[in-house]
Design brief:
The chain has 234 residues and is of the alpha+beta class. It is built from six helices and eight strands, in the order βββββαααβββααα. β6 and β7 form a beta hairpin.
Length: 234
């Protein structure tokens, strides 16, 4: 059986669902699972962030689940960490298709575990790096497009489809500190890197995620707005 997680699911015919899965060593797998009724129903474990053992047959584009079970408790995500987990699922669902993403299970699992311990936006940046590497979209963080080493003291700009270059005042692209780029490459971001790293990775992710707004991001913004409104009333 394969280790896996459910990224997304939707109803399919009577007593069945289509599961969009991330399978260890395989990647994205879309499969039909029968839920059943009564005490033997599997609905309780067919949840996001629930580590699963999965057996399936993939004779057609849509595989069939032949066995599925939980192998450990669901990973408990709360507050901002829950929104972060939903974000991970959404970008994976959008970006990987047809059994691609075979290297992403471990980084995904590690990111969920980190988020369960405490919310840290840097964990998201590191997973985005893993996803972009899988997709072939991670630019070289150690040198500019013309082969000059990135220096911690330097200031750079990212040119889409080209790469990094030393910042030029006449170009309307955000400035990026060399120190942040090097820390990102070493997975050693610090608090002051947060906004710049987020915006930079968002730029790299955009061609793969597309222009449609992310539901997880909208939900987070709406929830934060309601929460802030309640605090002001108090």
């Amino acid at each position: 059986m394969h280790r896996g997680y459910i990224l997304h699911q939707r109803p399919y015919r009577e007593n069945s669902v289509i599961l969009h899965l991330l399978i260890d060593g395989v990647g994205r797998v879309d499969a039909v699972a029968r839920c059943g009724r009564g005490k033997r129903s599997q609905k309780a474990i067919l949840q996001t962030f629930q580590p699963l053992l999965i057996q399936y047959q993939a004779k057609h584009e849509l595989a069939t689940i032949t066995a599925i079970e939980a192998y450990s408790p669901a990973i408990p995500l709360k507050a901002n960490s829950l929104f972060a987990g939903l974000y991970l699922n959404e970008i994976l669902y959008r970006c990987i298709k047809g059994q691609t993403g075979d290297s992403l299970f471990v980084p995904y699992h590690q990111c969920l575990m980190a988020l369960a311990a405490s919310f840290d936006s840097n964990a998201l940046r590191y997973f985005e790096m893993a996803l972009l590497t899988e997709l072939g979209g991670l630019t070289d963080l150690h040198s500019t497009f013309d082969g000059v080493d990135v220096r911690a003291s330097g200031t750079y700009q990212y040119l889409p489809d080209i790469g990094l270059q030393l910042a030029q005042s006449y170009l309307n692209y955000p400035h990026l500190s060399g120190s942040m780029l090097l820390r990102l490459s070493q997975r050693q971001l610090i608090a002051e890197d947060g906004i710049a790293a987020r915006n930079f990775m968002r730029t790299l992710m955009q061609p793969f995620v597309g222009d449609k707004p992310l539901n997880s991001r909208l939900l987070f913004t709406q929830t934060r707005s309601v929460r802030d409104s309640q605090v002001q009333k108090e």
